[in-house]
Design goal:
Layout (H helix, E strand, L loop, with lengths): L1 H27 L5 H10 L7 H11 L6 H13 L13 H36 L4 H15 L2 H15 L18 H39 L2 H8 L4 H23 L1 H6 L2 H7 L4 H10 L3 H29 L7
Helix pairs in contact: 1-14, 2-3, 5-6, 5-8, 6-8, 7-8, 7-12, 8-10, 10-14, 12-13, 13-14
Length: 328
């Protein structure tokens, strides 16, 4: 197991290197950037230098004057030293803005992920064990609706119903108008109140695929020979389903769980933007449309690291949930 983990880590480092190079090239080849916007703004001021002169000066200031290869090497070494640069849009170090936003996304994503597992997996098992019943059809319709609903459409419906019509929640933001006048517990409850609709949105649009995935794999396992043998031996249906069948169903589910790791920290860009939640997804979206190259590159590399780590964790968990799996 130790050799396998070391091998996978080395492979992940190589993959991360090439992913980082692709990210850097794409960021350098963007049609517009913060530098161009600032140069254009400064060149229009009375008595200012020309746009070309400002571009040359700002490119030197932000290290954009060299070739892509030399710039990439310099960028990699700065990252290895822990220097992630300053955000052009937020005018603070990238790591500072990252720390201020990532935990909001993590709390929201973690709660939504736990609720999704609690709802989707049991419903998927029920649909599989009661195939072609009313419960199966109802769960399948709910799952397909969740898969088909666009995030922006479902979020708009929730805001129209619960914010505009009923007035239970605010339309946007993480805190209310009187947040500063509340007690410590009141501030926590105020933030929790603002996260209800975003969490519901994340759960509904995500649990459908996990529900269908659980049902499909559970049906495949229930039709296996060893399940029929277990039933023939007189084992109770509950023990057959939850002890023998469900354990083998966990293998593909682990893949989804491992792939969900980036979403816990990387944020839900669309959901956070729709509800104006100042998480890492919202901050990265604002940075991208503003041409904030340092923050955008850090965010994309961060997602790549989490994706590789999630895949590694999923591979290791295979051996935990299924004793038949042996990693040499």
């Amino acid at each position: 197991m130790r050799k396998y983990i070391i091998k996978r880590l080395l492979q992940s480092i190589v993959i991360l290197f090439f992913v980082a190079f692709i990210v850097y090239v794409l960021m350098r080849c963007l049609p517009t950037s913060y530098i161009e916007a600032i140069a254009r703004e400064k060149s229009m001021q009375p008595g200012s230098k020309s746009y070309e002169e400002w571009m040359a000066q700002l490119s030197v200031t932000y290290g954009m004057d060299g070739s892509i290869l030399s710039g990439f090497i310099k960028w990699v070494f700065s990252y290895l030293k822990g220097d992630f640069g300053d955000s052009w849009k937020w005018t603070v170090p990238v790591i500072t803005k990252f720390q201020d936003t990532v935990w909001i996304s993590f709390v929201m994503g973690f709660i939504a992920f736990i609720i999704e597992l609690i709802i989707a997996i049991p419903l998927g098992i029920i649909a599989a064990t009661k195939q072609y019943s009313k419960a199966d059809y109802t769960i399948s319709v709910i799952a397909l609706a969740g898969i088909s609903l666009p995030t922006f459409f479902f979020a708009s419906l929730l805001k129209l119903l619960f914010s505009v019509k009923l007035g239970w929640f605010d339309l946007f933001g993480l805190v209310g108008r009187n947040y500063d006048q509340l007690s410590a517990f009141g501030q926590i409850m105020d933030k929790a109140n603002h996260l209800v609709l975003p969490i519901i949105t994340l759960v509904v649009v995500s649990m459908g695929s996990l529900m269908r995935y659980t049902r499909t794999n559970m049906l495949e396992v229930l039709n296996a020979d060893y399940i029929r043998t277990a039933r023939a031996k007189g084992l109770s249906e509950k023990k057959v389903i939850y002890h023998h069948a469900f354990r083998n169903t966990l293998i593909p589910i682990v893949t989804i769980v491992g792939g969900s790791l980036p979403g816990l920290f990387a944020g839900a860009l669309i959901t956070e933007t729709l509800y104006a939640i100042p998480g890492i997804g919202y901050a990265s979206y604002q940075s991208m449309i503003a041409g904030d190259i340092p923050f955008s590159m850090f965010y994309l590399v961060f997602i790549a690291v989490l994706t590789l780590l999630g895949n590694l964790i999923a591979d290791i968990l295979y051996a935990v949930v299924d004793p038949r799996v042996r990693i040499a």
